[in-house]
Amino acid sequence: MNISILLRHSGIWVCNVDYEGYKVDGIVVGQSITFMNLKVLILAELDINNVRKDIEIRYVVAGNSCPLKIKNDMDVKLYLEVKMNEPGFDIYPLCIDTIEKMGGEIHNFDGTFKEIVCIEGTERDIEALVMIESRICDSYYIPELNATNYITYSKSTNVKTGQLYKDKATLIDVINGEILNKEQLQFQSEKIR
């Protein structure tokens, strides 16, 4: 059974339970959706760059003095149970807030800013893998991730803008290989002179 969910985003919390000045979109999910897949779907639907921003997902239940936050699989299950008990597209909309990431564990390579990024760390490993798996299974979810740019071979010498590395060790191996190649070329050119 599919469930239609109204998304309210780009608004502000005026008080604990009033979300105002928002825009509206919608998604359809299955009953078995996980928290990570829900986040990925919302990020894609709202065209949010998940490298620079994260989202908080909340909803308001009548009689509550503050919104309930969805932060794991159990919270998603609870939300879906509440939603299914009172069907209706406009009942219990999800309120989506974006948060700027502050140099956290997930990084990316951005040709504009010339920064190298490595996906490794805490729960974000799971997030990165979900994104890559989603990209392989369904290109609709993560348009900015290109699985062909995901480097797993540590002896790779083809370094380009937009590449992602399996882990920090792979990134270090590739960079060290690139440095060694440049040093060897410089040594050979000095030898020729």
Task: Give a topology summary.
Layout lengths: L1 E8 L2 E4 L2 E3 L2 E8 L4 H11 L7 E7 L8 E3 L2 H13 L8 E7 L23 H14 L12 E2 L12 E2 L2 H25 L1
Parallel strand pairs: 1-7, 8-9
Antiparallel strand pairs: 1-4, 2-3, 5-6, 5-7
Written overview of the protein:
This protein is an alpha/beta fold and 193 residues long. The chain folds into two domains: 2-100, Phosphatidylinositol 3-kinase Catalytic Subunit, Chain A, domain 1 (Ubiquitin-like (UB roll), Roll), CATH 3.10.20.90; 124-192, no CATH class. Helices cover 33% and strands 23% of the residues. The protein is built from four helices and nine strands. The protein has helices at 35-45, 73-85, 124-137, 168-192; strands at residues 2-9, 12-15, 18-20, 23-30, 53-59, 68-70, 94-100, 150-151, 164-165. The strands form three sheets. A five-stranded mixed β-sheet has the order 4-1-7-5-6, covered by helices on one side. A two-stranded antiparallel sheet has the order 2-3. The chain starts with a strand and ends with a helix.
- Taken in chain order, the helices and strands follow as EEEEHEEHEHEEH
Total beta-strand segments: 9
- CATH superfamily placement of the largest domain: Phosphatidylinositol 3-kinase Catalytic Subunit, Chain A, domain 1
Total domains, how many? 2
Low-confidence stretches: 104-117, 119-124, 133-147
The best one-word shape is elongated
What's the main sheet like? 5 strands, mixed
Relative strand content: 15-25%
Termini separation comes to 74 Å
> How would you write the strand order of the largest sheet?
4-1-7-5-6
Work out the radius of gyration: 21 Å
Average pLDDT rating: 75
| Tally of individual helices | 4
Here the CATH topology of the largest domain equals: Ubiquitin-like (UB roll)
Q: Return the structural class.
A: alpha/beta
Tell me the helix content.
25-40%
CATH class of the largest domain: Alpha Beta
